Amino acid sequence: MALFAEKPCILAAEVYTVGEDDRAFKSKKAGEVMRFNKAAIIPAAVIVVCLVPFVNKAFHIDDTLFIRAAEQIQIEPTDFYGFSINWYGWEMPMAEVTKNPPIASYYIAFSAAMFGWSEIALHIAFLVPAAAMAAGSFFLAQKLCSRPVPAALAAMLTPGILVSSTNVMCDTMMLAFWVWAIVLWLRGMETNKNWDLFFAGVLIAVCALTKYFGIALLPLLFVYSIVKRRKGGVWILFLLIPAVILGSYQWMTYKLYGISLLSDAASYAGGATGHAADLLSSGLICLFFVGGCMATVLFYSPLLWSRRVLAGEIILVILFIVLLSLSGISRDNSGQIRWSFVVQASLMAVTGISIFVLGGADFLKNKNAESLLLLLWIVGPFIFTGFVNWTINARSIIPMAPAVGILLVRRMEKFNYKTWKIYWPLVPAAVLSLMLCWADYTWAGTGRSAAEAVGENFGSSPNTIWFQGHWGFQYYMEAVGAKAIDLRDQKVDHADIIVIPSNNPGVRNLPQEVMYLNKVFQFNLCRGLTTMDMQSGAGFYSDGWGPLPFFIGPIGPAEYSVFIIK
């Protein structure tokens, strides 16, 4: 038997559209694939409704870098990174600091020119790429499975997607371009329409210039197309479009800044990896992130597997609990086992494994180009995040979300479940994801509140206000006139003020003999849930904070300490 069957699976040969009842499908000819379907409004509307409560979220994590670049673009559009910023503890050219391309910043600059720089205005602007991502996931699912609405919703109502979509960074925008590029490419390959392939090539380039990981579309679609056509063809020329555009970007940025930003980001991702020396540890942590960020799969488990397989999953969870309890990763500073951490990590690991089993089982069953596309789609982000990127984080995992949603539905098709059974797991998935959005919202808000408190209490002081820490906290501290400490060459004077956050990067211990504690601002967080906390082991934005993307359990308040130079 050939590895790839000559006949595609029925879902590759026929396309279905959703009527009033999700079970009522209309079969269409292959030449009419992925035509407009008003049901695409459903996942787009759902994700917008989920995100609207968080449009007043404080600027957070790397939002500051994207906003600063957008401010520069409004001043000099052709010199997007032509300024300096203190991000790692000392002043550096922005071109050396950022490892993301500028498309998202151009979008922010355009939106701010129209509606202003407020948190609400920018977050509303980012609802557009979120809705486009959801709609694109629907149209792709329409091609690859029989129930595109639950497939798209299963992809969107995940902790990784929803939390990332509450920021004004490039991640969900990149995924929107990613999904639509695949939609157009698959349609072009199906119908032999070169215009679809041309626009897909352009979208691949735009995707990569939104976030460099988008360049992974080139090998992904090349392999899919070779398997689909079993030979080369004119379609290869359209993959040269993003290659030419990205090559031009390399040359342009070298002329502007003396470094080629694409290759610089690639070398940084591979060269700054602190965890790559231990491949087993990296793979395990990345498995935690896959299972946690795609936690929707956990709630679908009873519908995906037989009782025997579910029993095996339970045994595997118990095995992980035993193994993790014996490792150092599970112990706190006093040496006690953190059982809550161990149980959550075990559930995430087994959920992550089940995602790859879904992809592998689908490929073994169908052995066609579409099943291979989905399998490689989930494997690629895992390999990049765990073994290539400089840190393991949720933002690098989320590109696999649309493929995971489609694989869920493809798996359930053989059971012929009623509609309500397909949708009910989305309820706990949405609740968990929205709770995590709230936890991240409250934590982001502490940086804004702390800066406002510092301004109210010390803004009238004739002495300079300094601060350590970066992310969104830096944006708000600079807004009240404070300055980031330069750890390489900074002279502070008598009675100067220094603000130091408890949960922020770039914080170094300063000599206690030269300063005294004046005040501590405390802000309550979402007490039972967190996305970033070293004590609990949650590191949604970087595994340097912890090996889990989130943690369910008691969380202490965020503290911002104010010191005075003696």
Low-confidence parts: 1-33, 272-277
Structural domain count: 2
Largest sheet: spatial strand order: 4-3-5-11-6
Q: What's the average pLDDT? A: 89
**What's the number of extended β-strand segments?**
11
Q: Rg, please?
A: 24 Å
Helix content: 55-70%
Give the overall form. Answer: globular
Number of helices: 24
- Portion of residues in beta strands equals 5-15%
Overall SS class: alpha+beta
Assembly state of the chains shown:
single chain
Largest sheet data = 5 strands, mixed
* First-last Cα distance: 80 Å
Question: How would you summarize this macromolecular structure in one to three sentences?
Answer:
With 566 residues, the protein is α+β, with helices and mostly antiparallel strands. The protein has helices at residues 10-13, 41-51, 63-75, 94-97, 103-115, 119-125, 127-144, 148-156, 159-164, 171-191, 194-208, 217-229, 235-257, 261-271, 279-293, 296-304, 307-325, 339-366, 369-387, 394-397, 401-412, 419-423, 426-458, 471-479, and strands spanning 84-86, 91-93, 465-467, 483-484, 497-501, 515-523, 529-530, 532-533, 538-539, 551-552, 558-565. It is 57% helix and 7% strand.
